[in-house]
Design goal:
Radius of gyration: 20 Å
Number of helices: 18
Largest sheet: 7 strands, parallel
Strand content: 5-15%
Bound molecules: uridine-diphosphate-N-acetylglucosamine
Helix content: 40-55%
């Protein structure tokens, strides 16, 4: 009997970390399905893509759509057109999409229109902020998906409130944490602290890439003002996303950062190095979604440079505090942490490194 076939779709950096555990669980020796990895090419640089495949032991994609960068419409449309050609030639029995990037919604829409069932990993997260492109991607993807894999109970509640039937919802836990657990040895081996001349717990880690923080100079400025104060107390490492690098180069903020002697800007870092920095940081200041969760798992205080989060358990149970782009708030919370009063938090239920297995189990039962 021929095996049923599943496409796993990835496009952007955070997808790779979510794909790996599901890929490994589905392709274990006794796995019952044939798996095809489809990379849309939304992220294409070696340090935004290839290195994650290597470190997370994902084989080279079976299909590469090479869409590259573009406006939301152009990028989403290009993924749809190219993925449709692939499935018209060779249709899988199910399409699995991850997270909330443009590639996620594009492939979900394409599949459902070709009557191929869709599974969404990391379903049900809501920031309730429709100015965030990811929020639109989440809502649309969940609406068309048949299997909705949620990381936490709040996500189930969101979906139920939106009228999605309970039998479609599977609370499986946080798949990103699986990658973190599986990579523990590689993360420990990373020599990044030595390379950057940092001492454990004596530095802060910064990431910024949300359009709402980096696209307009006026939005970024209050965060940079806060850094100017914080760097007086400890060095700050800033692996800068390509979007952020471009914006900094295009206005005076790049020079402002360069003038801060204790802020070290680096290119985007590989997974092991980056997670080593998270685990050894005194605190993290970020606008990323995933890093809020990784910091919570590692028990490292996280200040989130946003006014909302689609991951509320990181605030209620974890180490996360929302600080927006308010200079006083950022400096105040950073000082509290440095004075020993940072949030300790606990690990949310089902963030146990076994989410990929649970997802694979549900997909296999649905298809075989
Ligand atoms: C995307 C996701 C965001 C995710 C982030 C993680 C959407 C809507 N956004 O945002 O949810 O948190 O990835 O990184 O899907 N670029 C490069 N090299 C690359 C990739 C991008 O130079 O390998 C540059 C391009 O010039 C591009 C810009 O970065 O225009 C932004 O890339 P894009 O994929 O559009 O969105 P991100 O900001 O990365």
């Amino acid at each position: 009997m021929t095996r049923k076939r599943v496409d796993l779709i990835v496009g952007a950096r955070p997808n790779f970390v979510k794909l790996a555990p599901v890929y490994h669980a589905l392709t274990r020796p006794e796995g019952r399905l044939a798996v095809r990895v489809v990379h849309t090419g939304q992220h294409y640089d070696a340090n935004m893509s290839d290195v994650f495949f290597q470190e997370l032991r994902i084989p080279a994609p079976d299909v590469f759509l090479e869409v590259g960068s573009g406006s939301h419409g152009a990028q989403t449309g290009a993924v749809m057109a190219r993925y449709e050609e692939v499935i018209l030639r060779d249709a899988p029995d199910m399409v699995v999409v991850f997270g909330d990037v443009n590639s996620t919604v594009a492939c979900a829409l394409t599949a459902v229109k070709q009557r191929i069932p869709v599974a969404h990993v990391e379903a049900g997260l809501r920031s309730f902020d429709r100015t965030m492109p990811e929020e639109i991607n989440r809502m649309v993807t969940d609406r068309v998906a048949d299997l909705l894999f949620t990381p936490s109970a709040d996500a189930d509640e969101n979906l139920l409130r939106e009228g999605i039937a309970r039998e479609h919802i599977h609370l499986v836990g946080n798949v990103m944490i699986d990658s973190l657990v599986a990579s523990a040895a590689g993360i420990r081996r990373s020599a990044i602290l030595h390379r950057l001349g940092l001492a454990p717990k004596r530095f802060a880690l910064l990431t910024l890439h949300r359009p709402s923080n980096v696209d307009a100079s006026d939005d970024l400025r209050p965060i940079l003002d806060a850094l100017g104060t914080i760097q007086g107390r400890l060095p700050i490492v800033f692996p800068a996303h390509p979007r952020t690098q471009q914006r900094l180069a295009g206005n005076g903020n790049g020079a402002l950062l360069r003038d801060m002697g204790a802020v070290k800007v680096t290119p985007p870092l590989p997974y092991y190095d980056f997670l080593r920095l998270v685990s050894e940081a005194s605190f993290v200041l970020t606008d990323s979604g995933g890093i809020q969760e990784e910091a919570t798992y590692l028990g490292v205080p996280c200040l989130t440079a946003r006014w909302n989060t689609e991951r509320p358990v990181t605030v209620t149970l974890g180490t996360n505090t929302l600080v927006g782009n308010d200079t006083r708030r950022i400096v105040g919370e950073a000082s509290r942490i440095l004075d020993g009063a940072g949030k300790r938090g606990c690990i949310p239920p089902l963030w146990d490194g076994r989410t990929g297995e649970r997802i694979a189990g549900v997909i296999e039962s649905a298809l075989t």
